[in-house]
Amino acid sequence: MELSTPAKINLFLRITGRRPDGYHELDSVFLPVSLCDRVALGAEASDRVEITLRCNWPHLPLDDRNLAARAARLFMEAAGVRWRIAIDLHKRIPDGAGLGGGSSDAGAVLRLLARLHAIDPSALAALALRLGADVPFFLDPRPARVGGIGEQIAYMEGDCELHMVIGVPPVTVPTAEIYRNLRQHDWSGPGPAVVCTAANRLAPELLVNDLEKPALALYPQIAEVKRLLHDLGAAGVLMSGSGGAVFGLFPSAREASAAAAKALVRMPQARFFAASVI
User: Fold this and answer.
1) 42 and 150 belong to one structural domain
2) How far is C-alpha 19 from the chain's CA centre?
């Protein structure tokens, strides 16, 4: 079995509070984009649990430190089954970039195992949340308004045709570090009740990410990518998630592709991808 599994951007990310257990609550719009990994999975019944993970990126761990492997193990524990599972992970989504790549891979593993076990992936929401706050979204990655710590998902209707360049500076940004440096006076609270994501009616003031201030202070390379995308004519530029990826919105796929090519020339130490909402 195989799935193409998308990255996501946060059209906005606003902190609304903090729970007693220390987790921050948010109001955000998650948009799946055409920058994708591929997850292939095979499984057979066995007398013991066995997980083998292969990946085209040699620097990624292949044990339970990898969310894809951890998702397979957690599913088998919850379902009370023993399988021999092989996962082949072909990565394109940069890691440590705020694009949800690891969470997307984990969501894909859960979806594939749900298919094998003949259950609805939506029944795995609580299990997905144990893996990470973004994983429940990737059980059914469609444009959505997301709240709580990531478990409150309301799918959005209507046109969401946005084209962009995603720029990733040469840094890996630990999410926990960004939240440690977030100050309560920088929380912006809930966003507008109605969010229009049509490109010709998208309000620039919608592009707010409360995590951007601490991320830029710690990693000035993110600001350099933002400035470059502004210079190349992006209508709006924002950091995604906890960083360091930045997206810049363009009127068309053609203009986004042209801007990505120019960005690669001007900043070869970073990575740039033309993408669209899917």
Assistant:
1) yes
2) 22
Which residue among 155, 179, 213 closes a domain? 155
Residue among 27, 37, 134, 210 flagged as catalytic: 134
Dig out the tokens for 235 from the structure.
Answer: 């209508």
The HSE-up count of residue 239 (CA atoms within 13 Å, CB side) is 27
Give the residue numbers spanning the domain of 167. Answer: 163-276
Q: How far apart are CA 34 and CA 7, in angstroms?
A: 7
Q: Give the total number of structural domains in the chain.
A: 2
Higher pLDDT, 196 or 261: 261
- Percent over 70 (pLDDT), the chain: 100
pLDDT classification of 116: cutoffs 50, 70, 90: very high
Distance between CA 28 and CA 72 in Å, rounded? 28
Tokens of 199: 């490109």
Q: What are phi and psi of 80, to 5 degrees?
A: 70, 40
Q: Using one digit for the tens of pLDDT, what is the confidence trace for 7-60?
A: 999 999 999 999 999 899 999 999 999 999 999 999 999 999 999 999 999 999
Query: Does 134 participate in catalysis according to the annotation?
Result: yes
Q: Are residues 122 and 197 in the same domain?
A: no
Q: What is the pTM of this model?
A: 0.95
Q: Do 40 and 71 lie in a common domain?
A: yes
The catalytic residue among 8, 37, 210, 226 is: 8
User: How many CA atoms within 13 Å lie on the side-chain side of 223?
Assistant: 8
pLDDT given at position 58: 94
Q: For residue 25, what are the CA distances in angstroms to 8, 48, 132, 209?
A: 18, 39, 14, 13
Final residue before a domain boundary, out of 155, 174, 198? 155
Predicted pLDDT of residue 27: 98
